[in-house]
Protein 1
Amino acid sequence: MSTRPTVVWFGLDLRLAENPALWAAGGRIAMVAEQVAGQASGGGGKTGLAADHPNAKAVFWNRRYEPAEVSRDQELKTVLRGDGLLAESFNGDPLFEPGTVLNKNGQPFQVFSAFWRTCLGKPEPAPPAGAPRKLPRPRIWPESLAVSDLGLEAAFDWAGGLRATWEPGEAYLRQVGWREFAYHLLFHHPESPHQPLRREFSAFPWQSDPQGLKAWQRGKTGYPLVDAGMRELWHTGWMHNRVRMVAASFLVKHLLTDWREGAAWFWDTLVDADLATNTLGWQWTADCGNWRACRAPGYTDPGKLRPPCSQKQGWSWARATRSRLWIMSRPAAAPWQLWHKEMRRNR
Ligand SMILES: Cc1cc2nc3c(=O)[nH]c(=O)nc-3n(C[C@H](O)[C@H](O)[C@H](O)COP(=O)(O)OP(=O)(O)OC[C@H]3O[C@@H](n4cnc5c(N)ncnc54)[C@H](O)[C@@H]3O)c2cc1C
């Protein structure tokens, strides 16, 4: 076995377990690099990486699927290979490599249920690998705090009971299927974060309403469920899926504000911000995506009916999600009256 080391680049994915790039490097790892991409010269000269680590024989990393990262990875591979290094990327994220799930005609699926059925008919993805038992120490440790100094670890194992009793069921797996579908759509439509997939929506007369947009962002619309969700988002970076749908619906269907404004706000504020799923969520809410959940005649996705002003539904959804903690007051019988009051107050 060659003694020349392999550099493993940790980008977004910092896991030691379930990390195929780390596994592929085997025992030959001598270093991990945080910023390989920034070191690519791109101009045909040696990359900073090759210059800094003249002994390295390979660079491995887990690939990303956002359009900009796909091009960056390709460029990086060309540059590193030009430097005489073995450059390989691995799938450490979706269950099925985007672009590999196609219909009988070799075309991308546009119906989720058919896409997911095909995924489930494929050989099961390999079970996740654990963390390597041993990782070589760097010659010099960089100056650092201990993880425990950051106070990030929970004082007690709050998820222990859940872990011991919960078994992912079909409904959960289906949600993961939606995530797969989102990656599939982004792969086939790299323009989708900026372009509606139903082209006719390019000409949709969205209204410019900076004041309304600001009220929505700050959770000051007067609609309790929308506001609770938006305040929760701002304070915690998270919102339940149902509440995301209601809040997003309010922006695009009530304020008639361009879905891209909402997607940009979610992108900036969600801790789980993800280009593929965020784009799917927003195009889905704005009904400007070109895919369907199901092909059955007469099928209506119940999630498409999301009036934010039905008091009963608002309360039951708020109760079902932890967003209720962010409701400031009991909802008014007619929240649209509050909307006008809030807007006057914010003027
Ligand atoms: C407008 C809008 C924007 C969204 N933006 C994002 C985003 O930026 N990042 C993000 O990860 N999710 C996004 N979602 C999808 C969904 O809201 C979150 O994935 C979900 O709330 C995560 O909660 P959970 O981990 O409890 O999910 P669970 O219900 O436990 O599901 C398990 C996993 O499946 C995936 N998943 C669940 N629901 C969906 C869904 N509707 N679409 C695609 N994948 C799903 C997620 O990876 C999730 O962690 C968005 C949804 C909407 C309506």
Note: Residues 172, 175-176, 178-179, 182, 240-241, 244-245, 248, 266, 270, 272-274, 277-278, 280-282, 285 surround flavin-adenine dinucleotide (CB under 6 Å).
Protein 2
Amino acid sequence: MRVNTRLAALGALLLPAASAQSSGGTGSSTATSIKAPDENGFYWISSEGIKAAFIPYGASITKLLIKDQYGIERDIIVGWDNATAYENPDVHPHLGSVPGRYANRIKNSTFEIDGETYHVEPNENETPEAPQGANTLHGGPNGWDYRNFTVVSKTEDSITFSIVDPDGEQGFPGEVISYVTYTVHDCTWDIKMVAIATTKKTPIMLSSHAYWNLDGFGNNETNTVLDHTLYMPYSGQRVGVDNILIPTGDILANERGSVNDFWSAPKQIGADLDKPEAQGNCGFNCTGYDNCWLVNRAQNGPYDWRTSGPVATVHSPWSGIQLDIYTDQDAFQVYSCNGQDGSWPIKSENQGQSDNPELRPVVEKYGCVVLEVQDWIDAINHPEWQRESRQIFGPGGDPYVLQASYVFSINSTGTGTSS
Ligand SMILES: *[C@@H]1O[C@H](CO)[C@@H](O)[C@H](O)[C@H]1NC(C)=O
Ligand SMILES: *[C@@H]1O[C@H](CO)[C@@H](O)[C@H](O)[C@H]1NC(C)=O
Ligand SMILES: *[C@@H]1O[C@H](CO)[C@@H](O)[C@H](O)[C@H]1NC(C)=O
Ligand SMILES: *[C@@H]1O[C@H](CO)[C@@H](O)[C@H](O)[C@H]1NC(C)=O
Ligand SMILES: *[C@@H]1O[C@H](CO)[C@@H](O)[C@H](O)[C@H]1NC(C)=O
Ligand SMILES: *[C@@H]1O[C@H](CO)[C@@H](O)[C@H](O)[C@H]1NC(C)=O
């Protein structure tokens, strides 16, 4: 079939040689390379100091196990206990998934390419005038993370998923074929996403939407991430948004010492939430963060994203776990779980274990933080930002590529200060 032939050809082009063997099959083939999931439907990969699990639904990460500074293994990702739970139609917080074909929000579910206007499916901010929603979030009501990707390759330390997104799906022009490869090694999680617009020009922006709690909810004094420090050394600016988080077009300054300043020094996520400017910072009546910071570093000279320093560092003084995020992407969205309210349970394994009975085994408000490597949000509606080469892709042009490395280490700074 046409699609499978394409997948095979692209697979050969884009993937490590070892995986191309399995790319042609829909049926039985290649039991040698595709290992079965565990009883919860999770596909595991592992290497020195790190284990991670994934599901085909949304190509989502479901578990990430790292040892804390005392040698206790903690699952530092928010999620459900089994693959089935991810397909609950009533609760779909994009847990650990790959939002696509266009992550974050599209204003009025509308964009223009070469003078032609496209309307995509809305799915957020319902109003009487727009009962389905005033905008599109994460690719629409049947975005990529509502679908099963195909497992095309699986080794001990690596897994590759693919998806074929047909022309017209959710209103987007043209077919898109994408591969997502996750690899672990040396306390590091590597992500590579490639996507190709095979038939028409179309917007593409992907990300990884994992929710983190670097204590694995094991901290006996808090269930929140408000004590985690966040540092984004290249992010003196952010994208201005309206009260439903749609970019206005304005690029805002994160003045030194302001609520959104995480560039001048590392700062605890909760440090400024009592300040008046924190109110409404993440939309209507919302106190916290749900913002897109720009990553500006070309002015410092040529850089190699793998070695020129992380775009973001998050550290928990309690577990000692530090996460350094390296990426080739030019923006970084942070969501501080302002909307969580204790209605999600934590997982039944490798989470919790605190001996404080006052802490409920649930995800509280500010109980996690989502860290999204991506491009400037809704740039398809802001041609004045001149992001077209990073957001609009078409046949014959360069593919869309996202690369990131999540490096874990132990940093004992701060240990003991709170007890
Ligand atoms: C799957 O996990 C959810 C909670 O995450 C639980 O309620 C449900 O019973 C589990 N289902 C199976 C089949 O284990
Ligand atoms: C918003 O989208 C609707 C159709 O979905 C369209 O009729 C309207 O013109 C759009 N408004 C703007 C300001 O683009
Ligand atoms: C995804 O795959 C699972 C397991 O085969 C299946 O139960 C589920 O219905 C599929 N979901 C979708 C949206 O296709
Ligand atoms: C948390 O654990 C530490 C170390 O075991 C202990 O000193 C402290 O009293 C505990 N706090 C609570 C609230 O249980
Ligand atoms: C604002 O948020 C608070 C706390 O989240 C809530 O109790 C209140 O009802 C909200 N107010 C409005 C006008 O939505
Ligand atoms: C360790 O964490 C502290 C506080 O978050 C931070 O200031 C320091 O730079 C970190 N150390 C390293 C080596 O990253």
Note: Residues 229, 266, 315, 322, 411, 413-414 surround 2-acetamido-2-deoxy-beta-D-glucopyranose (ligand 6) (CB under 6 Å).
Protein 3
Amino acid sequence: MASIPTDTLASDTEIVKNYLDRAELPRALGSDEVAGYREQIKALMAQKNAKLVAHYYTDALLQELAEDSGGFVGDSLEMARFGHDCDADILVVAGVRFMGETAKILSPDKKVLMPTLEATCSLDIACPIDRFSEFCDQHPERTVVVYANTSAAVKARSDWVVTSSIAVDVVEHLMDAGEKILWAPDKHLGSYIQRKTGVDMLLWDAACIVHEEFKARGLQDMKALHPNAAILAHPESPAAVLEMADVVGSTTQIIKAAQRVPQSEIIVATDQGIFHKLQQLAPDKTFIIAPTAGNDATCRSCANCPWMAMNSLESMLLSLQQESEEVLVDAELAAKAMLPLQRMLNFASAQQLQVKGKA
Ligand code: SF4
């Protein structure tokens, strides 16, 4: 395993800090205000034939609204699938920008809105297309596999796009075909895949600012306090945290594991937005957020993605009323990005068929 030189990463950190300084978090709403927003948004969605797709990390109010209004809550792969399959004219994507772009690429005839286009992702920021393209050009012998948390331009430069739920399976499949991999952008997920598969993998050097804050030392202390608790962790977390986990998986895999494992106490190393769904599906269990905040943590990112948190009922209503914050992707670029995305979707469908065939 090798990785790119890190001399350019200081500037990425600066860009992320600048975003965080500018990010305006939504104000807390009273219950009457919540009811008022919900009513207005539902009426507008019915009038405009719009559907809301929300990520597990978004505010519980948005997740509830998506479910109450015939929309969908899920991980990024499931959100993209639902957006593509539903018959809405407008999709409102509550999440971060790459999710809106993916929805637009898969559903070019639908209008895709977001509560705010400002919501981005540290992985997307740290993998600009010019540098990434140069890196790919230097390694033409490698198959380029990128995480879904990337811009449309980076996807268009790749051979495969994967989400965390399918990354190991896809890379294993490529390794069996004798291919060497160039992976971007999340170094922790990349190194986890490398450890799981043993594949020859060249890694881009970027990280999720939320998952990188989980600390193994703190987790050991927490485990000492809750010795019977299970630990569930997202693979964007550092290796030392993953080594302690009973289950490593995507958000959907974490939610399934939480219902399946026998332990009644569960320590969770991912964004705390997921607790809404965990408590809904496993109400008898106690969920504890894994420790964050090492010496250099800002705690704007501690188990709470600042960009996911920018999505609110208020900004959603405004976007829907004005049909503003529209996600646009150049048609030629979208056609190129569609190829690696479609490869992933086809692969996922084939896997599903195999699972059904064995049942
Ligand atoms: S939680 Fe991390 S990977 Fe997910 S959107 Fe936020 S910064 Fe990106």
Note: The mean pLDDT is 90.
Protein 4
Amino acid sequence: MLNKPKRKSQSVRVRELDNLYKKFFWNKFDFDSCYTCDDKTVPLFWGHFVPRGSKLVRWDINNSRPQCFECNNELRGNIEEFRIRLNKEVGPEEVERIENLKGKPIYKGFINNEEERIKGLK
Ligand SMILES: [Zn+2]
């Protein structure tokens, strides 16, 4: 009997996409300070406005910005400040679009689509 090639679990694929996306993210923007408090403390972390558990916006360019450890971890994303700054940067309609995707389930094929999209990001 032929063995079917083992498919990667979703969590493995999510981690692979994280790595792909982060390469783009850190290259694309010349970040030198925390998005939500302007601290120039290094290192910076991959911070999210809507937490990355919401996979529909996990790799959304308007949902992630660099944050210091304090904002990212201790302040759990410093979300109120994140919202204020994101509103100014991308506009309230875009912020609302992102927030509306919070907690929504992914659809069939989403991970494949994202992989293709992220590979094409420059
Ligand atoms: Zn900060």
Note: Strands lie at 45-48, 64-67.
